[in-house]
Design goal:
Distance between the termini: 35 Å
Shape: elongated
Oligomer: single chain
Amino acid sequence: MLFFAAFAFAPNLIHVNFTYTPSKTEQVAPADDPRSDPKFIERKKAEIRTAVNEVTGHWVPQVMFVLMPVFAGLVMLFRRNSGRTYPEHLYFAMHVHAVSFFAATLVVLANIAVVPYLSAGAKGVGLLFAGTHFARSFRSAYATTWIGSLWRTALISLLYSIVLLAALISIWVPTAWYVVNQP
């Protein structure tokens, strides 16, 4: 929850590029079209950014609640012979997510209070810590070798990132589409 509270106050975390290109079927001359006005484009960018940040703050906590069991399922898939039950994998998933959200909170706070060099360093350290923590925790919890932990956590992270990105896109695209098509 701390991450989502910090995210709500973080300015410009999501960058939006918006350009209007009239289609061939439109009969309006680009010079007469209000959508080709730079002020209109900047206003739409601001509206999209605001809307996307708003839906992110509202829906992502709920999405993460659903995706955490997916993460546990991926861990279970890669360690199916570990002798552990799904609730144990889910407990591990909650631990990894808690630490990752703590690191992400530091990254978001570094975006809020921008201090030259310190903010960039905090972002790098937060991301590095979250990534290495998963591998170290996996090695400890599942008693695997370093090589086994690294390739498993890399594949789990890749697959989970794809699922997470698909979930975020399914939230952001309809929101942006709605804002773009509003007069």
